[in-house]
Amino acid sequence: MARTVAIGCQDFQTIRENGYFYIDKTSFLSQWWESGDSVTLITRPRRFGKTLNMSMTELFFSIKHAGKGELFQGLSVWEREEFRALQGTYPVISLSFANVKENAYEKVRYRICQILRDLYMQNRFLLEGDLLAQNEKEYFDRVSENMNEEDATMALHYLALFLYRYYGKKVIILLDEYDTPMQEAYVNGYWDRLVSFTRSLFNSTFKTNPYLERAVMTGITRVSDYYGMAEQTGGVYMECPWGHLHASVWSDVIVRRPKDYGGCAVGEPGVIESLSLLPRSYPGHAVLTEDVGVLLGEDDCPCGRLGKYFTVTGRAPRAEVRGCSDTYEG
Q1: Which one of 54, 94, 160, 280 has the fewest CB atoms closer than 10 angstroms to its CB?
Q2: Distance, CA of 122 to CA of 126 (rounded, Å)
Q3: Which CATH architecture has domain 12-219?
Q4: Where are the beta strands (DSSP E) in 87-177?
């Protein structure tokens, strides 16, 4: 019998319990865990299933969902005994900035503080007994939508500490759409103020947090790779959705044979030469690099862009590790 495709459903438990159509992505859990990375950033446009994956990750690892292994039965992550043993064994802090869309810094800061307050409300059991010192209980009670910036930027750090102390295990932190407020800040003119706030928040949460086991952050801002040198004006080659690097209208690329520096044919590996029409103050029109690449074609990339496109495969043998401004004494 055909399964229902639940369009827009972002809750892993709802999908599994109702038998909705689901493409198994649980191999992400094992791959991510085995990578050993402390903090993982996943950047994809909207509707790529990021939020559903975050829901899946929380349900798999969170102590609050211990005993829900049946949701993962029949999926790839459940085939390995060592991962079955991990289900429901970690304290997890899960939050999302997806709805933080305001036109002023004060409103965004208020909304983020509301989210932090809600996390503390969900964990008020930590106030019971003597787990927290008196000053820590006072801090706990100060966490609100109107708390000062110093308390706000340390809120996730301290919550991780309190959970670590309660469970005796480091914490997994999941932050969905971390950059939604950043996009609003850029459009509405309060970028610098928000960057200062989030830098302090993220630094205490993800960088200088000894109580952090692992973290996943997702973002919606499109990120494109490129090849080239900022110092060579015009010599930046942007990556297209097919993973190919493209020459612009003011630049060119030639792949040359290392033995005679003749031009390589399409598909033939060689040394990359970057060319640009723009440099005027220095002789940067043609730069023969020490990078090896392959010219893939011209005017026929599946992305639709015209011009030459290529890929970089590595560095030339015996290439020195050096920078553009290195000097040598005679």
Answers
A1: 280
A2: 10
A3: 3-Layer(aba) Sandwich (3.40)
A4: 92-96, 171-176
Contact call for residues 297 and 316 (beta carbons, < 8 A): no
Per this entry, what is the length of the chain?
Answer: 330
Backbone φ and ψ for 233, nearest 5 degrees, come out as: -55, 125
What's the CA gap between 113 and 118, in Å, rounded? Answer: 9
Query: Residues spanned by CATH 2.30.38.10 within the chain?
Result: 226-315
| pLDDT tens digits, one per residue of 189-233 | 999 999 999 999 999 999 999 999 999 999 988 777 889 877 677
Residue type, 153: T
Tokens of residue 50, six digits: 């990021």
Place of tokens 């947090």: 209
CATH 3.40.50.80 applies to domain 226-315: no
Question: Is the distance from CB of 20 to CB of 73 less than 8 angstroms?
Answer: no
Measured CA to CA, the distance from residue 255 to residue 261 in angstroms comes to: 9
pTM: 0.74
Output the pLDDT for position 283: 72
Cβ–Cβ under 8 Å, residues 294 and 311: yes
Query: 104-114 as b/e, with b when 16 or more CB fall inside 10 Å?
Result: ebeebbebbbe
Per-residue pLDDT of 231-245, as tens digits, reads: 677 788 999 988 899
